[in-house]
Design brief:
alpha+beta; Cathepsin B, Chain A; 2 domains; 7-stranded antiparallel β-sheet; 42% helix
């Protein structure tokens, strides 16, 4: 004779299992997954940090001296543009008058780029504790065939365990020192120049605030790698070590939270492709113009 309670229990279990399977299937539907995946990843991260809170760090003057030394070394390693020195002429100056003529200023037409580009080849990885910079740099390097991960880049950028502040210039210097690639840092970027780099095949590292992910929390600096854009949906595709792979970031949100860091960005490239990078930068290829 069957046990009615056991039968009801098994039926209940099967119903719950079927509902969970259905929910999972719906979650992985592209339109649903696109909207919810980053929220689920963010919740996962919050739970992790709740049970594994970062230790409190007390700043000391010695740390500032160490940071100054690192910045000084980075700036020394970066190539500088020589400014010619004007020498006074001993010859007399002759003033000549002439009829003014019209000077035509050439019109610069931006290079046309596709409405949508998605770069493949960046290996996404979630950051470990306070390891946003190393994880982001590792992701950007993976596009160019580099085989390491954030455990490789961490000692490059965070030689001291309590070092949490990583500057874009430190990233560029690490690329030049530890890889066969080159890198440069510029500020004052805009949406168009990012799209130009993506269209030309160059992922771009940006530093921004996480206000779109943590709207009710304190200001937080964060790195990410832009690997695509879509004008029809007005958004970038961001490889984010905290949120998710292929995070859809609206242009308006990107620009708002990028502004907190003076629209700074890092481009990594093979040395032989430097002319392409400089061409995209235009006048901003000159470090002094970009200041």
């Amino acid at each position: 004779m069957r046990n009615p309670k056991l039968t009801r229990l098994l039926m209940g279990f099967l119903v719950v299992f079927a509902l969970l399977a259905l929910m999972l299937a719906v979650y992985y539907l592209p339109p649903v997954h696109e909207r919810l995946a980053w929220r689920v990843s963010s919740l996962r991260a919050k739970v992790f940090y709740f049970f594994n809170p970062p230790g409190k760090v007390v700043f000391s003057p010695g740390q500032q001296e160490e940071m100054d030394a690192i910045v000084s070394m980075t700036l020394t390693a970066m190539p500088s543009t020589l400014t010619p020195t004007l020498k006074p002429s001993l010859a007399p100056t002759v003033l000549m008058t002439s009829t003014p003529t019209e000077t035509r200023v050439p019109t610069i037409t931006p290079t046309a780029i596709p409405d949508s580009v998605i770069l493949q080849g960046v290996r996404h990885e979630y950051q470990k504790m306070n390891n946003c910079g190393p994880a982001t740099l590792a992701m950007a390097l993976s596009y160019w065939g580099w085989a390491g991960d954030q455990e490789t880049t961490r000692p490059w950028l965070r030689p001291h365990p309590d070092d949490r502040n990583i500057m874009p210039e430190e990233m560029a210097a690490a690329v030049k020192i530890h890889t066969d690639l080159d890198a440069l840092v510029r500020s004052g970027g805009d949406t168009h120049i990012l799209k130009q780099f993506i269209a030309a095949g160059f992922p771009v590292i940006i530093e921004r605030d996480m206000g779109d992910v943590r709207p009710n929390e304190d200001w937080t600096g964060h790195y990410g790698v832009i690997t695509g854009y879509d004008d029809s949906r007005e958004r970038f595709i961001l490889q984010d070590s905290f949120v998710m792979a292929d995070y859809p970031l609206a242009y308006v949100d990107h620009y708002r939270y990028w502004r907190a860091f003076n629209h700074i960005y890092v481009v990594i490239f093979p040395p032989e492709r430097e002319p392409e990078v400089l061409s995209i930068l235009g006048a901003h290829a000159d470090v002094h113009f970009n200041l």
